[in-house]
Amino acid sequence: MKRFRGCLQIAGDELRTQWHFYVVFLLSASFFFASLISILLVTRRIPNVLDDEFADSYINVIEMNKLPAGFLPTLEEMPLKVIEFPTIRSDLIGIDSSDSENQYYVEEYQDSESGEVFTRSFGMSGSTGDVVQDKTHASITRMNEVLLAGDPWTEEDNSTYKIWLSDKAAEMIGCYAGDVMELPGRMNSKISTRVAGVYRRDDSKMAFFYVTIPVYESVVPKMMKENRVLLQPDSILQLNKIINEIKSHYYFANSYNKSVIDGYMTVLFLLYVLCGFIGLMVVGILFATARAYFARRTRFFSLLKALGFRTRGIMTVVCMVTQGVLAIAFLISQFISPHLLAYVSVCLSDLHFEMDISTNVWNGTALFGFIAVSVLAWAACFLGKRTFKTAEITELMRSESQ
Amino acid sequence: MKIIECRDLTKEYVSKTQSQQALAHVSFSMEAGEYVAVVGKSGSGKSTLLNMIGLIDMPTSGEVLIGGLNTKDLSENKRADLRNRKIGYVFQAFYLEPAYSAYKNVEMPLLIGGVGKKERKERVMKALETVGLAHKAKQRADTLSGGEKQRVCIARALVGEPEFILADEPCGNLDSENSKEIMNLFERLNGEGKSILLVTHNEEDAKRAKRRIRMLDGGIVADETL
C-alpha cells in the first residue's frame, strides 16, 4: 500500500512537471472521445430514423406474390406487419351466392397501373356475366371457419389437385366432400379435381371455394397482379433476416426495393466502420503517446529503476498518469459531445434528413467507451515492450558518459 | 564484516561483429566503513565493476555478494529492492530530475521504498543538511550549480541510509573547486562511518581514499592500502 502511495505521488509529480506534454495528449484524447461518443450516438439513432422513414415511404416493403393462405399464420409470427393484402386468399375464387339463378365463377383482378378492378368470368354452367366483388382490397382477418366434411387444408395439398367448397357453394353446385369436380382450364381444357372438404364460414355472404396451387394455376387464365402481400419489417435491421426466413419457407417469388435498402444499410455499415476506425485511432494515439512518453522519459525511468523502483512500479506510474489524463479527457468530452451532436443535427437537417439526436451523452455507451479505452491503456502499458531492464540503464549511463 | 564481495567477476560485451571483455576475473572485497577508490584509465573496466556491484548490470560470470547475500540468482524485483535499501548511487551525470525541486529529487528513493510522509520529510531534510543544502530544498534542480547538483545527488544516495555508497566519477563534471568540496564531503561521510566505493580516473581524488584498487584492461593490477 505504501509503495502504491509512492507510485501515486510520483504519478502526481509527473503530471505536475510534465504538463506541457499532457495538455497535448489531453486535448487530442478529449476530441477523439467526443467524436467517438457522438458517432456512437448518431449510429445508434440512425436505424430508428431509417425505420421511421421507411414506415412513411414504404421503401422497405417486401412484396410477395401468390402467397398461399395457409402460410399467413407463419408470417404473423414474424416481426413485421402486413401493410397490404389485396386478395384475402390468393387461391380464392368467389361465386356470388345471391345470384342463384346465374351461377358465375369469377376471377377478379386489379390493373396495377390504373387501379381499376376487372372481373373475368368462366362459368361452370355455360353462362357468362360480370360480377364485381366489393372487396378487391381487404385486410387480414381470421375468419371463423368450420370444416363440415372431408379433410382440412394442409401445406402438402398444394402439390395436388384439390378443392374445398363452402357449404353454400357445395349446396349450389351439388357437390360434396369426395366428389370429383370438373373445372374449365386454359386453352379449353378441363381440370378434374376432387372436393377435399366442405367449410362453413359464418360471416360470408358468398359461396366460395379454395383451390390448391396446381388447380389455381390451371384454371386462372392470367396471373393476377393483386395477388400479393406487402410486408413491412418492424425494424430495418431485421430486414435481411426476415427476407432469408421468408425465402426459406416459401417457394413464391418475392421482391423488395433491394437497391434502396442496400444503400441505407451500406450507409449504416460505413458509420459503424467509421466508428471502429475512430476507436482504433484513439487506441493508436494512446499507444503512440504512451510510447512517446516512455521515450521522452527514458532517462527518468532509468533513474527510478537504478534507485530501486520495480518494473511494475514504473508501469503503475505510467498507467496512473494515463488514467488520470483519460479521466479528465472523458469529462471534457462530455462537454464537447453535445455541441458536436447539435452540429451534426444541423448538418443533417441541411441535407433534409431530420434526426432527433439526444444531446444527453451521459449514458452507458460513453461510460463503456471510457472504461474500454482505459483498459486498453493499462494493457498497452503492461504489455508494452518497455520493461526497463537494468541493462538499459547501463547503456544509457554509458552513452551519456561518452 | 564484508559488505561487498566480488568473486571472479567477468563481463563480456558481445556485438554482432566483435566481443569485448570489460572485466576479466576480478575478485575483491570491501569491509564495512572502508573508503575504497577504484582507479584506472578510461576503458579499464572500473565503471563496469561499479555497475556490477550496484546491481544495475549482470556479470557474464562470477558472483557479487552484498552483505553476505549472493545476488547471482536474485529476481529483478529482489535486485531492485536491494538497490533501494542497501546501495546509494552517486552518478557522474547527476541524473537529477530537472523539473523537480532538490527536496523532491532526494525524496525519490524513499517514495520508491514506501517510507511514510513524516519520516520521509525528516530523512530528506537530514540528508540535505548533511550536504549543506537544506536552505535550497525547494529550489528546482535545473537552477542549481554543478557542485550543488552533485551534492543533491549525494544526499539522494544518503537518504535511504544504505550500507554503502557507490560513486561513479562524482567529480567528472565539476570544476576543481567543486571537486574539492565533494571529495571533502566524501571524506567527512567516511569519517561518520559510511562505506564508500569511489570510481575515478583522477589520482588526486583517489589519494583521498584509504585504499586504492588499480585497474587496467578489465583486471585488478594493484590493491594498495595506506
SSE layout:
The complex is a heterodimer of chains A (402) and B (226).
Chain A: H1 2-17, H2 19-57, E1 62-65, H3 72-76, E2 80-84, E3 92-95, E4 106-110, E5 117-121, E6 145-150, E7 162-166, H4 167-173, E8 180-184, E9 190-201, E10 207-211, H5 213-219, E11 228-233, H6 239-249, E12 254-256, H7 258-296, H8 298-306, H9 311-350, H10 364-383, H11 390-401
Parallel strand pairs in A: 7-9
Antiparallel strand pairs in A: 1-11, 1-12, 2-11, 3-10, 4-5, 6-9, 7-10, 8-9
Helix pairs in contact in A: 1-9, 2-7, 2-9, 2-10, 7-10, 8-11, 9-10
Chain B: E1 2-14, E2 19-31, E3 35-40, H1 46-53, E4 61-66, E5 69-70, H2 76-86, E6 87-90, H3 102-113, H4 117-130, H5 146-159, E7 164-168, H6 176-191, E8 195-200, H7 203-207, E9 211-216, E10 219-225
Parallel strand pairs in B: 3-8, 3-9, 6-7, 7-8
Antiparallel strand pairs in B: 1-2, 1-4, 4-5, 9-10
Question: Can you tag this structure with a few keywords?
Answer:
heterodimer; A: 402 residues; alpha+beta; 2 domains; B: 226 residues; alpha/beta; Rossmann fold; six-stranded mixed β-sheet; 10 strands
Characterize the structure shown.
The complex is a heterodimer of chains A (402) and B (226). Chain A has helices at residues 2-17, 19-57, 72-76, 167-173, 213-219, 239-249, 258-296, 298-306, 311-350, 364-383, 390-401, and strands spanning 62-65, 80-84, 92-95, 106-110, 117-121, 145-150, 162-166, 180-184, 190-201, 207-211, 228-233, 254-256. Chain A has 402 residues and is of the alpha+beta class. Chain A folds into 2 domains: 2-56 and 261-401, no CATH class; 87-226, no CATH class. In chain A, a hairpin with a 6-residue loop joins strand 4 and strand 5 (117-121). Chain B has a domain at 2-95 and 163-225: 3-Layer(aba) Sandwich (Rossmann fold). Chain B has helices spanning 46-53, 76-86, 102-113, 117-130, 146-159, 176-191, 203-207; strands at residues 2-14, 19-31, 35-40, 61-66, 69-70, 87-90, 164-168, 195-200, 211-216, 219-225. In chain B, strands 6-7-8-3-9-10 form a 6-stranded mixed beta sheet, sandwiched between helices. In chain B, strand 7 (164-168), helix 6 and strand 8 form a beta-alpha-beta unit. The longest helix of chain B has 16 residues, at 176-191. Chain B starts with a strand and ends with a strand. The chains are: A alpha+beta (402), B alpha/beta (226).
